[in-house]
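Subject: for your reference before the review

Hello V.,

The reviewers asked for a structural picture of the protein, and I figured it would be easier to keep everything in one thread rather than splitting it across files. Below is the amino acid sequence we used in the manuscript, unchanged from the supplementary table.
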Amino acid sequence: MFLPSTRLLWLLAGVTALAIAVSIMPQFQLQWAALAGALALLAALDLASALRTPAPALERRIAASLALGVPVEVALRVANRSGARLRCEVHDHHPASFECEGLPRPLALGPREWVELGYQARPVARGEARFASAELRVFSPLGLWQIKRLSGESTAVRVYPNFRALARYSLLATDNRLSQIGVLQVRRRGEGMEFHQLREYREGDSQRAIDWKATARTARLIAREYEDEKDQRVLLVIDCGRRMASKDDELSHFDHTLNAALLLAHVAARQGDAVGMLTMGGVSRYSEPRKSLAAVHAILNRAYDIEPTLAVPDYQQAAREIMTRVRRRALVILLTNLRDEDDDGLMPALDLLRTRHLVVLASLREAILGRALSARVDSFDRAVTHAAAADYLVQRGRIFRRIGAAGVITLDVEPERLPIALVNRYLELKRGGRL
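And here is what came back from the structure prediction:
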């Protein structure tokens, strides 16, 4: 495809203006015709030369796996395959789910010359994405035409949840420094579920941990050391329904939930437990509980492209599926956004799950409620908002008390606090021997 350049349009405008002048002074008609003909011939030759020139070659380099919201550098290598000097503009056809800076880029290439350039791309949605062939706007030798050419292969990428934070959590967990991100680690001396080893008694150990037989043999105080049970099962049940599309910040409630699920999966895997995932609410996917960090990768690859649907979660159907799939006792963690109208379908589902499993219900609470309560009440409208938020939270509290009275462990937190709160509750249950 070719288009006239700004230069050619100005020349045509000048010829048109002269035509108006010639209509007043017809004695210059021959000169105007010669000028117009020369311009037409020049433009035709310039276009023919541009069309014969081979399109520049383009190669794109970008990582195959990207993190949501993290800018990445896209490298483009553009090569002039002709023997003439070339001017062009490069515009990469990035996915609509990317925010980009630094495009289009003007280039001037000598004969057989190549250059590398880059621009910043930031993915704002998870899932599969594809960069189409780049568009090159090549200027003709005289600059009278712009030739649009497509060059380069399309490139597929996957956008995952932001695993930079997960990598940081992993490092802290490796160094036993999870307390830096708010994960509470309760130091226990000799009070665990499985015997680990005998060691010399230390100040602060419980006297109940002393092994008197070993103490008598060695003539020094020896204590038993225990560790938490391993080989237990954790199933993360993630709601993909319409409420999970709510946003308090840049991330949706579903994104926060997925981040929390991945962090908990990583911590549980490092504890020696098997972790799996089940989705509900318009998307049905299942990852069987497995041990080691392979569980995290399995959940990541099964859930990275899920987006909230318009469906309403069917808690009873999910409960029946869990009872069918997970025969051994497990910690079932239901991640959702609870409402009053869910009560009728939710309670029978929780009762069914409790016949075999330990159940945790983690619900996301909109951050706007907390802001409404903490805002200064200096007008009638703000007073009404404050009262409405307070009443809603009172009603919400009653629902959670009723669920808790039925033997279900509950969490009601704002989305950004969910990852740490969920890990803390898991460690608390595990170290308390509840699993």
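For the response letter, the relevant points are probably these. Residues 177 and 423 are 14 Å apart (CA to CA). Residues 380-405 form the longest helix (26 residues).

Happy to draft the paragraph if you're swamped.

O.
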